[in-house]
Design a protein that fits this description.
Elements: H1 2-19, H2 26-39, E1 43-47, H3 50-60, E2 68-72, H4 77-85, E3 89-93, H5 104-110, E4 115-121, H6 130-140, E5 143-147, E6 155-156, E7 159-160, E8 167-171, E9 185-189, H7 192-202, H8 226-256, E10 263-264, E11 271-272, E12 278-281, H9 285-294, H10 322-328, E13 331-334, H11 342-357
Parallel strand pairs: 2-3, 2-4, 4-5, 5-8
Antiparallel strand pairs: 1-9, 6-7, 6-11, 8-9, 10-12, 12-13
């Protein structure tokens, strides 16, 4: 993908390198405006990475010590860690067995009298039922924050990820659907005061329009650098075509694996799933994964330990969460990237089906398969 984008950003990127104009400037502002518009929101603030985006959004919304924040147990640890870093308390909720997403019922069950917000994770590229989740939140008087790190361009009922909550948090880690050349992130919101507070917090507590030496808040250093903004603007022009390729590859996966002894996660009718990952559930996962690896096909685990069972977070877990726990033992991420060919998808599916049906000693004959590193991008 870098080769595809490089011609369009080469001059601006090299000019930035040679002039040493690395922090702030027009390129950062341009990407922020482009990204806000893409998400259907009024404001975007570039930050250092997605984890900071979550913490900064919580702090900007006044959520800290004394507050509970609902977090689904099926997520990357950064979602809950950001709550702890903000001084609040994560309260873990279970997820749907069919989608591994937060539901109105599991959200309602996790709300306490101290709950101030819920972080809704758009896991693997699918937005959950935001209309129903927002109703539960409104009835409880709490805020919704979107963790959209895996959902660039995903939608519910025609509205993009980033346009639903009081704030939405994105990661542009290189492996994301829209990835930088390193770490980068953004907070998206349609509340001007939230955007300005995030911007100040991310810039050592400085507010726009004040002296460089005035610090109105105790902030941190979490700015999107100019080089990353240039890369992200260049890649954003390709994001929709890359997303359509992901959707097409996922559709072929679903057709070829229909009837195979694996469970496919449901795709809800009102969602536009952008397939950051293509995740299946399979028993004997370790054996299947080892067999695929032996045949040159790399897979991933997202995530083999539920968030509430991670050692530093166990103290916040109040009860078993059976759907998240059972899924963690079975999830397996198959190769998926925008330039994946139909032939590669067919090879993965054929090899997977043979591995499911045969013993580990069988040899399906994969002399034509590519080496493992070429599959997972």
């Amino acid at each position: 993908m870098t080769r595809e984008v490089w011609p369009s950003i080469r001059d601006q990127y090299l000019d930035c390198l040679l002039t040493a104009d690395y922090i702030g400037g027009p390129a950062v502002g341009a990407f922020e405006r482009e990204w806000a518009a893409y998400c259907g929101a009024d404001h975007a603030v570039g930050v250092a990475h997605g984890t900071d985006a979550l913490q900064l959004a919580l702090t900007a919304l006044g959520i800290g010590p004394g507050a509970d924040v609902v977090v689904p147990a099926s997520t990357f640890i950064a979602t809950a860690a950001a709550v702890v870093r903000a001084g609040a308390t994560p309260r873990f909720a279970d997820v749907s067995e069919a989608t591994l997403l937060l539901t109105p019922q599991t959200l309602a069950a996790a709300i306490t009298p101290r709950t101030r917000a819920a972080i809704v994770v758009h896991l693997y590229g699918q937005v959950p039922d935001m209309v129903s989740l927002q109703k539960v939140a409104d009835d409880a008087g709490i805020l919704i924050i979107e963790d959209a790190a895996q959902a660039h361009g995903a939608e519910w009922a025609g509205r993009r990820a980033g346009s639903w909550g009081a704030a939405a948090c994105f990661s542009f880690y290189p492996g994301k659907n829209l990835g930088a050349f390193g770490d980068a992130g953004a907070v998206v919101t349609s509340q001007a005061e939230v955007a300005e507070r995030v911007r100040a917090l991310a810039n050592h507590g400085r507010s726009r329009g004040t002296s460089h030496d005035e610090h109105e808040l105790v902030g941190t250093n979490s700015r999107l650098d100019t080089l990353q903004a240039i890369v992200l603007s260049g890649k954003l022009a390709c994001l929709e075509s890359w997303t359509q390729r992901r959707i097409a590859a996922a559709g072929l996966y679903r057709r070829l694996l229909q009837g195979a002894p694996v469970d496919l996660l449901d795709v809800m009718p009102s969602t536009r799933h952008v397939y950051h990952l293509f995740v299946i559930r399979v028993s004997e996962r370790a054996r299947i994964r080892a067999e695929l690896r032996r045949l040159g096909i790399q897979t991933g685990l997202h995530y083999p330990v539920p968030c509430h069972q991670q050692p530093p977070l166990r103290g916040y877990a109040e009860r078993p969460l059976p759907a998240a726990e059972s899924a963690a033992a079975e999830v397996l991420s198959l190769p998926l990237f925008p330039h994946m060919t139909d032939a590669q998808v067919e090879t993965v599916c054929g090899t997977l089906i043979r591995a499911l049906r045969h013993s580990p000693r069988s040899s399906p004959g994969m002399a034509h398969s590519r080496p493992a590193h070429s599959w997972m991008k």
